[in-house]
Fold each of these.
Amino acid sequence: MGEAALAGEHAVKPLVSASSAEGLLTLTMANPPANALSIAMMEALKGALERARDDAGVRVIVLRSGEKLFSAGHDLKELTAHRKDTDRGRAFFEKTMELCAGLMQTIVRHPKPVIAEVDGVATAAGCQLVASCDLAVASDVSRFATPGVNIGLFCSTPMVALSRNVSRKHAMEMLLTGEMMDAETARSFGLLNRVVARDALGETVKGMAKLVASKSSLTVKIGKEAFYHQAEMNLSEAYDYTVRVMVENMLARDAEEGIGAFIEKRAPEWQDK
């Protein structure tokens, strides 16, 4: 994908910059001061993700921030400005929430793994963004919250991603109290995979991304899709579905190569098919 600048239609400056190397696509958000998920920011992110979908040079995507905050969530000033509309903002609120829901589902349904690299505060829809990613690594100074309840706007859409990552009791604690939590607490809740020192964050994420990128991209695609699909099924349905997935996977060239390489004690040569 090379170096590129990606912006929403109404952005004066690029809101998302993209750089790629070694099969890793890094998307860096830049919407100071709070890295708010405005309409333009969400359109830019969604567009960048969609362009990466069929890019064979992209095997793993890293989502990070170039600001002091990862993301403070929706742009409340943008939302409030539309209260002056004749419908009191209903149409714009619907557009914002639907676009956000679409962005989160784009991440979950993306054929490439998406890793959140968090250095700073992630709140509300920003926390939802972290929860929607397949993996998440944060610096030890990062903090997380779903504080909508504090301003009379319950974090109902962030709740979808949150409740699919952490236990119900932990999710409700975050949603009902709105309190900020440190990175280690977020990790213990299940929101994060790892917490590392700030100066080790970039290299830790890169190492994780390169490890995932070294696998067969076809196998990873099959596995990611199956993981989220079976999670919504009951036990017997999930086993019926994953049996079919395993059989089809076994018939793939990369499975034949990978198993053969394991038996022969050699490195596999992936063809991603």
Amino acid sequence: MLSVKNLHAGYGKVKVLHGISIDVPKGSVVTLIGSNGAGKTTTMRAISGMIRPSAGEITMGVGASAKRIDALDSHRIARLGLAHSPEGRRVFATMSVTDNLILGAFARLTWARPRGDVNADLERAIELFPRLKERRHQLAGTLSGGEQQMLAMARAIMLNPELVLLDEPSMGLAPILVEEVFRIIENLKGQGVTMLLVEQFAAAALNVADYGYVMENGRIAAHGPALQLRNDPSVKAAYLGTSH
């Protein structure tokens, strides 16, 4: 589904990624864990076209339909079915919850992607994120931080994507809301949604993921099945702590 090979990227003269390679098979949940500044968010931005890689290949798709996306603009990548729920939520504060969700389906409404039943998907998104249901007509900027995070995730799902990038979905949330976010991720996984997850709570991420990559200083330091990483003494000591 997603293949990243020898990816180099950064910001101007500041090089952040130094030749990373990751794979996200269709229907799986893969997580990137690591300390702040390791390059996780830069990886997500390079994949979704928010920044242009300086070297390497990013391919999305299966079999003969696979296509290189590392030279494409972000709106063209979205049309291919990649949805990005970014760090910091970035909802449209002066628009209603419903209008934010409809914007998530913009590529479908303009026939850049298969349209399907947008209204039915809107109702399903509201049901999946019940905190949004009673606030569907409320301005997004008046929502709590946790509700805005759920809106950002629901908006990504409205693309009817092939792949979802979730960048720090639990950042800044109270523990009870963190649990709800991961319950929703589990639900999406059960529906077969392919996800690449960046998450500060490494233990929770590895509990929901099928496979994991550990990033250090812009490089992949370790990778393997999530269960294997959860039981790795060095990963436990560095990232899981007492929450494991």
